[in-house]
Amino acid sequence: MKKAITVVLIVCLALAFTACSTGNEETNYSGGEIAGKDLTGSGGARIFSANRITMPGGEGRIIDAVKAGDRFFIYSEENSKNCFYFMGTDLNVTKADITLESTVVSIDVDYDGNIYILSMEQDGTYVLTQVSPDMGISSRELEFLGGLEDAIWDITVSSQGYFFETFNNVVLYDLEGKYIGELGPFQNAFDIIRNSTELILVVSGENYTEFGVLNGDKIQNTYKVLMTLNGVSTGAQDGHVFAVNSGIVYDLDFTTGNYTGYSNSYASGEVGKFIYLTEETYLSIVNGELMYYTLAEQQENNELQTLVLATYAHEDYEISDLLNAVSLFNEANTDIRIDVVNYGIYDAGNAEGTGLQKLYNDINAGNTPDIYDLSLMPYRTFFNKGLLENLYPYFDSSENIKAEDLTSSVLEAMEYKGSLYNLVPTYTIITMFGPKDVCDRENWNTSSFLQIADSAEVSLFGPQVTRYEFLKYLLMFTGNEYINMEDGICNFTDSTFPAMLSIAKSLPETYDSANAASDDLGLVYVGRQMFILSTNANIISAVHTADAVYGGKCVHLGFPSENNGVMVNPYINLGMSANSRSKESVWRFFEYMLSDEYQNGIRKTIPVKNSALDARLDSLLSKYLEVNNVVVFVDNSMTKVPLAPISEDVKTKAMGIINSIDCVNYCDSALYNLVVREAEPYFSGDLSAEEAAENIQSKVSIYLAEQYD
Prior knowledge:
Structural class: alpha+beta
Oligomer: single chain
Low-confidence stretches: 1-43
């Protein structure tokens, strides 16, 4: 079974292509059409509709499929038994008269249409079964593999011999079983792809993928493309492959680096193993099912509307929940599809920010998306440029959801100049806990924190709170205390900022590895840390466990500031484009994100809908009824701290924290970098805190005048 090329767990590229190639002619990436090149409703790729292929055997799990001439050979597992099928171009499936009791390792097909099944007997012997186009079946034991130390993952059969893929190598034997050579070893993901007449070795690098055309155990030519690929499949012709990158299936010409979007898998449906059929059809194995995809425009009504959602992610996990929501919405609607366009892939191999610049170029050219994923974008700039739509009028006119149905503190924290530009359907909370005998909520502010910090005999925070992390918290938690973004003014000199800057200097410059084997709860429990800065989706757990490690004497304080010091950390953060021509359709998607169906299904984070939030807190409360202790770590040792019996009082405290939200986990990166740069002379001893604060005041004032006028 062919493995997907993946960049997960990649360390470095061990194979030097030039060391084993002849006539090497490396061709570097030269560009191509990419999602977002022009936002005309397809995002650089097309939308397909999925149709499940019904298997005669009923329930089973499709493991692999290969194209053998004018038919397909399919391998599945049904009730722990191997089952094999043939499927014609008419999509009719018939069971193959093949019985194999041993463990199937891989299937393959050669250019003559012969099918090969590599299996392993219980004694570890490998057997190769060959099925000819006229259904002649023969098997042979591959006794020459007896000395192979690593288990085999895959087989590729060619006229030159057998390529066996192991964990980190490709070993080649001729058809008689004589050892020829090896292509590795590799420390990265790799695979062999069979093209029209050529075999391609594909190896992934950190920000690129290399392709080598094979001739036996030698590589004739190598080609480097500056894209990281989640999957590579056989191309429509030599020199081409199909490759998945951030949800788009690309037709990639690896000899030039040019590529065009073939299918948008998030709008069309998830893509597993990809088998190209025509320009308008393909097969894919998704979650153990064989799916047949056809171009959506070919079979759906002309009213199908495509909305473009622009994001800026460098890893798919950053937007996994959003993509799942998009997929669910697309499945539930026949007249609207959302097409995810990831500008983050422009950054591969280029300077950081290239993708954002391309987004800005598209916006300036009038090719604006309908929806922005604001979680990964500097959205305050979007506010001031008038790029986002105020959502309050949509709530007012909606028959399905009102602003009053949502947590008011979250909405108020997200407001900007009286308007609501961000939809935050789910979030986490960042806030601070401390000991009652040192401070109380009533008298808590920056000044009281500074007094306590001045006399503290233990660490204030955990090992992850560096001076730079603390500076970032100062900019985000303190509201208008130091920076008023709405009015474009700042106050770093006539305030407590110089004193807070001295606190930052006392913190570790980098992650405190001396306490790396301990967590915040453990360090507080043994008296080596005073405060807990908590980022938590399970606010019931945060309150309950904090009380336990403080010995029943915990108080919620919030980050020291003149406001509540409770921050909303948007998990999904969406904006409606002010220039969208389909705003009502965008609002339908937003309504879906706020529907009972979606909100009640949120488990990892906090739902913004009040009814779903109440049910979620009750669920978490009941979960802790049977929990008697919490596990903490100190110096790499595990300790169980007793938990007091949980009560409704914990839910009341949790709701109090949620209702106290008054700031947002948003930091203008350019502004933050400016503050850090001007603070460094103080950290190094060249300036006083007051002098550094004056420099910060001067530079930030200029920046705000330029950015937020």
